[in-house]
Specification:
Blueprint lengths: L1 H12 L8 E11 L4 H12 L7 E9 L4 E6 L13 E6 L6 H14 L2 E9 L17 E4 L4 E3 L1 H15 L3 E7 L6 H7 L3 E6 L11 H10 L5 H17 L6 E7 L3 H16 L3 H13 L8 E3 H10 L7 H14 E7 L8 E3 L4 H11 L3 H6 L1 H8 L2
Parallel strand pairs: 1-2, 1-5, 5-8, 8-9
Antiparallel strand pairs: 2-3, 3-4, 6-7, 9-10, 10-12, 11-13
Helix pairs in contact: 2-6, 3-4, 6-7, 8-11, 8-14, 10-11
C-alpha cells in the first residue's frame, strides 16, 4: 500500500491528471503557520472523512507549523481520524503563505492539474476584517504567516483573486474565508470583479472553523447543486455544527456579488440622506450606531441592524423609500445567514466607527477601497463619529 501511494504521488507530480474536467475543484489554502495549526490537522481529517469524488476534486495547500513545511495534497477518503494520509503531490518547503502571489500560484496550479467547470477557493487562517484594530493583536487582514511575518491585506486578496480569475479564464464561482471577521461588505466589494459568491463570518470563528465533513458530505449528496445552493448549504451546516451545545455564538453568511451594485447604490442614497441632517441628528445617529450590533472589533457593525434602528428612531427628514430600497437590495445580496446566539446579526457588517480617533486612524486607507469609491461611506462616518 505504501508503494502505491508513493507511486501515485510521483505520477501526479509529473503529469496533468484530469483529462476531463470535473464539475468542481475545491481549492483550500490552509495556512497553519500560526497557533491555529492543530485545527488545520482537525479539518484535514474531516475532509478525509469524505475525500475527492467523481464530481469534486478537493485539493489543499497545507502549511503546518508542526510539520515545518508547505505541501499540496489531493484529498482522498480514509478511515484514519488521527493522521492525514492523502497523497502529497508537491512539497513546497517554506513557501510564504502570507504572500498573495503564493495563493495565485496555488490556484493556477490547481486549475491546470485539476480542471473543472467551477471553482471554489477557500482561504483558511486568522482574519481581522479589512483592518487591524488592536495594537496588541499580531494578526492583520488575512492569512498571517508566523514564519515570515507576512499577511495579505484586503487589496492583496483582491489582487490575488483577480490574477487567479484571469488565469482560469472565468470568475471564481465561490470565494470563502474560513477566518474571523471577514463577512464585511467592504471586503466583498473589493473582490467582486473576480468572484460570483462570497462567504464570510461577521464575528470571530471558533478554532474548529468550518465543519468540512458535514458540509462536504451534504455537497456530495447534491453534487449538481448550483453555486448559490452550495454556499447556502455551507452556512446552514456551519450554524448547525455549533448549535448543539448552545454555548458558542457564531455567524456565517453568503453574498451574491452580482447583486452588489444595486445594494451599493441604496447605501449611497442612505448616506446622502444622513449627510443632509443637522448636527443634533447626526449625534443621535452616532448613539444609534454605538447601540447597534457590533462584533469583536467594535467599529464593525451589523449594517441591517443599524439601519433598522435608524428607521425605528423616526427621524423626520429621512425618506422612507430609502429604507425600503436597502431592505430589497440587501435581500438580493445576502442569500444565506447562519447564526447561533446572534439574533441581531443579519449577515453583513460594515465599518461604522463612533469614535473620531478610529475614523482618523483608518479613513485614508478606507477611501482607497472600492466600496467607499462607490458609496462615499467615509463621508457619513466622518459626520457621525466623535
Amino acid at each position: 500500500m505504501r508503494f502505491i501511494i508513493i507511486a501515485l504521488a510521483l505520477f501526479l507530480s509529473t503529469s496533468s491528471f484530469a483529462a476531463q474536467p470535473k464539475e468542481w475543484t475545491f481549492l483550500l489554502f490552509l495556512n497553519g503557520n500560526n497557533n491555529l495549526d492543530k485545527y488545520g490537522h482537525l479539518n484535514m481529517n474531516q475532509i478525509e472523512n469524505v475525500g475527492s469524488t467523481d464530481k469534486i476534486n478537493i485539493v489543499v495547500q497545507w502549511a503546518s507549523l508542526k510539520n515545518g513545511k508547505v505541501q499540496r495534497l489531493l484529498m482522498q477518503k480514509d478511515s484514519d481520524f488521527k493522521n492525514v494520509t492523502s497523497p502529497v503531490i508537491q512539497d513546497l518547503g517554506q513557501a510564504d503563505m502570507g504572500d498573495w502571489k503564493t495563493l495565485v500560484d496555488f490556484v493556477q496550479w490547481g486549475a491546470k492539474n485539476f480542471p473543472a467547470n467551477h471553482y471554489f477557493v477557500d482561504v483558511w487562517d486568522h482574519g481581522s476584517g479589512w483592518h487591524k484594530l488592536e495594537e496588541s493583536v499580531v494578526f492583520k487582514d488575512i492569512s498571517h504567516d508566523d514564519t515570515t511575518g507576512h499577511h495579505m491585506t484586503t487589496k492583496d486578496l483582491a489582487l490575488a483573486l483577480h490574477e487567479s480569475s484571469k488565469s482560469i479564464g472565468q470568475k471564481i464561482d465561490i470565494y470563502g474565508s474560513d477566518a474571523c471577521l471577514m463577512g464585511m461588505i467592504e471586503i466583498a466589494s473589493e473582490v467582486s470583479p473576480s468572484v460570483n459568491y462570497y462567504v464570510g463570518s461577521e464575528e470571530l470563528e471558533p478554532g474548529e472553523g468550518w465543519p468540512y465533513d458535514r458540509f462536504l458530505t451534504r455537497w456530495n449528496n447534491s453534487s449538481n447543486a448550483t453555486p448559490k445552493e452550495i454556499v447556502q448549504m455551507l452556512t446552514e451546516e456551519y450554524a448547525k455544527s455549533y448549535s448543539f451545545t448552545g454555548k458558542k455564538a457564531v455567524t456565517l453568511s453568503a453574498f451574491d456579488l452580482n447583486a452588489l451594485q444595486n445594494l451599493e447604490l441604496s447605501i449611497q442614497q442612505f448616506g446622502e440622506q444622513i449627510k443632509k441632517l443637522g448636527y443634533d441628528t447626526a449625534r443621535e445617529i452616532r448613539k444609534i450606531a454605538r447601540n447597534s450590533q457590533s462584533f469583536y472589533n467594535s467599529d464593525y457593525v451589523d449594517f441591517l441592524n443599524f439601519v433598522s434602528n435608524v428607521k425605528s428612531a423616526n427621524i423626520s427628514k429621512m425618506n422612507p423609500i430609502i429604507f425600503n430600497n436597502i431592505e430589497t437590495t440587501s435581500q438580493n445580496f445576502i442569500i444565506a445567514n447562519g447564526t447561533v446566539n446572534y439574533p441581531d446579526a443579519h449577515g453583513m457588517s460594515m465599518w461604522i466607527p463612533a469614535k473620531r480617533r478610529i475614523y482618523s486612524k483608518f479613513s485614508s486607507l478606507y477611501q482607497e477601497m472600492r466600496f467607499d469609491q462607490q458609496t462615499h461611506w467615509s463621508e457619513v462616518v466622518k459626520l457621525i463619529s466623535e
